[in-house]
Structures are given as C-alpha cells and as structure tokens.
C-alpha cells in the first residue's frame, strides 16, 4: 500500500512538473481574409471546378519568416470562387493548381522556367484573381431534354482546347454527364445510377474536339423532383482532373 501511495505521489509530481514547463501559445488566432476568383484567361469567366480535393487548389507560402516555407492549401468552390477568413497576416507567395496550364513550370533539370505566382501582403480583406488557361473548355449545346418515353435525360455538349500551348495538348480520355439530386455535382459527388461516361482510347477522343457530343442518362429518372446536371471532360495530363460546364437544373415532372 505504501509503495502504491509513493508511485501515485511520484506520478502527480511528474504531471505538475510537465504543466509548469508547458509553453502556452499566445499568438492571436488567424483572422485575415483572402478571397477572389480563378478565371478562364480567354473568356474572363470563372473556371468551373468541383468542391474538395480534386478541384482547384490555392497554394499559400508565407514569406514573412522564411524563403522556403511549408505550403498551406485550401480549395475553391465549384464556381471558381474562393474565400478563406482564417489566414495569418503576412507576406505570401500565392498560386493555384488545377486542370489548366501550370503557373509554375520546370525544365528537365528541375529549374523553374515559368513562374506566374503572385507575391502579396495579406492583411484585412485581401482580394486576388487568377487567370489561367484550362486544358479544355467544356460548354453546353442547347438545354437538357427529358425523354418521357423512358424517363431519361439527354444533353448535348462540346469541348475544345483551352490553350494554344501544344505542350499541354494531351489526349482527351473521356466525357462524363454527372447527375445528382443536390446542387453539388461533379466527379466528387454524383449519382452513379443515372450518370453516364464515354471513354476514349488513344487519340479517338481528340476527334471529338469541337464536335457536339450527345449523352443520355442511365436508368429511369424518378419524377416530381429536380436534378442537377454537369458535363465534364479531361485530358491525360497530371492528376487528370476534369474541366466542367456550368451546372444546369432540370425539373422532372
């Protein structure tokens, strides 16, 4: 019993010593805001994306304390806008990554050959826009059509190259009609029961550039509700993220 009491007393002393030596973080919480848009350099409209880690990523490197900082990441919304209200005040190098010509490019030896990152002070409400060249521009052709005979939806879309830089003219791998009963729709959030995909082998997808592609949903679409539609297409480059149309809503009778 005496040994147990001694052990308990020693354990309490260790805890007290550890608490006395603890350093408290007295830095204020981050409260600066960085907001803006990622735009198609050609059309000046926002580049459509998907929410989450397969969408457009912001890369922040704080230069206030180091010339080689650890990057901090966050993502845009699916409409290409972004807003982060929890950033420390400081001087930053800011970039974006996604299905477009990289803002930072390297040669075979790893040397930077192109650098379109932006260096700025983030303090209070800071706004910045980026203009990028998407691998593909994907657009609607007409409006979605509900086929009452078999309760499906047919859409038409077209995709073309979004950059004149032939180094990024990789083969088109597929086109995808994403369907979802909620407004968040894309490769990260769709109903596989109705969505449909067309895959291309080799260079066959490139033959569809500039052509009208027709896509029809799988299975019967349940009535008396709204569905959200989006077409995505991608090329065989990098992580093979999709470029997208805007989102359309169709109300099923």
Can you describe this structure?
The protein is 8% helix and 42% strand. With 253 residues, the chain is mainly β. It has 2 domains: 32-132, Immunoglobulin-like, CATH 2.60.40.1120; 136-252, Immunoglobulin-like (Sandwich), CATH 2.60.40. A hairpin with a 7-residue loop joins β16 (225-235) and β17 (243-244). The model is unreliable at 1-22 (pLDDT under 50).
Which key features would you list for this structure?
mainly beta, 2 domains, disordered N terminus, globular, five-stranded antiparallel beta sheet, Immunoglobulin-like, 18 strands
Structure summary:
It comes from Chitinophaga barathri. With 253 residues, the protein is mainly beta. Helix content is 8%, strand content 42%.
Strand runs, count: 18
List the helices and strands in order: HEEEEEEEEEEEEEEEEEE
CATH-defined fold name of the largest domain:
Immunoglobulin-like
Structural class by sheet pairing and helices: mainly beta
The N- and C-terminal alpha carbons lie at a distance of 78 Å
CATH class of the largest domain: Mainly Beta
Overall tally of domains: 2
Helix coverage percent: under 10%
User: Nearest-angstrom radius of gyration?
Assistant: 25 Å
Biggest sheet character: 5 strands, antiparallel
- Return residue spans where pLDDT drops below 50 for at least 5 consecutive residues: 1-22
Dominant shape: globular
Q: How would you summarize the topology of this molecule?
A:
Layout: H1 2-21, E1 32-40, E2 57-62, E3 72-75, E4 81-87, E5 90-97, E6 104-106, E7 112-115, E8 118-122, E9 125-132, E10 136-140, E11 145-147, E12 152-161, E13 172-180, E14 196-199, E15 213-216, E16 225-235, E17 243-244, E18 248-252
Parallel strand pairs: 1-9
Antiparallel strand pairs: 1-4, 2-3, 2-5, 5-8, 6-7, 10-12, 11-12, 12-15, 13-14, 13-16, 16-17, 16-18
Protein name: DUF3823 domain-containing protein
Keywords: Signal
Signal peptide: 1-19
């Amino acid at each position: 019993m005496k040994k147990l009491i001694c052990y308990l007393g020693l354990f309490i002393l260790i805890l007290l010593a550890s608490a006395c030596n603890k350093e408290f973080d007295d830095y204020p919480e981050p409260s600066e805001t960085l907001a803006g848009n990622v735009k198609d350099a050609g059309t000046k409209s926002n580049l459509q994306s998907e929410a989450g880690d397969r969408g457009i990523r912001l890369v922040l490197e704080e230069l206030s304390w180091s010339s080689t900082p650890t990057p901090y990441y966050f993502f845009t919304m699916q409409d290409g806008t972004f807003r982060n209200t929890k950033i420390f005040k400081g001087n930053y190098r800011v970039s974006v990554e996604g299905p477009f010509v990289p803002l930072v490019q390297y040669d075979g030896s790893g040397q930077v050959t192109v650098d379109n990152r932006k260096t700025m002070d983030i303090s209070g409400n800071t706004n910045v826009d980026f203009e990028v060249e998407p691998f593909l521009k994907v657009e609607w052709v007409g409006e979605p059509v509900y086929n009452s005979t078999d309760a499906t939806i047919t859409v038409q879309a077209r995709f073309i190259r979004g950059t004149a830089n032939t180094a990024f003219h990789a083969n088109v791998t597929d086109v995808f009609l994403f369907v979802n009963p909620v407004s968040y729709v894309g490769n990260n959030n769709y109903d596989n029961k109705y969505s449909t995909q067309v895959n291309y082998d080799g260079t066959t997808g490139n033959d569809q550039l500039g052509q009208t592609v027709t896509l029809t949903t799988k299975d019967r679409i349940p009535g008396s509700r709204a569905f959200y539609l989006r077409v995505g297409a991608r090329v065989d480059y990098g992580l093979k993220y999709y470029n997208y149309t805007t989102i359309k809503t169709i109300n099923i009778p």
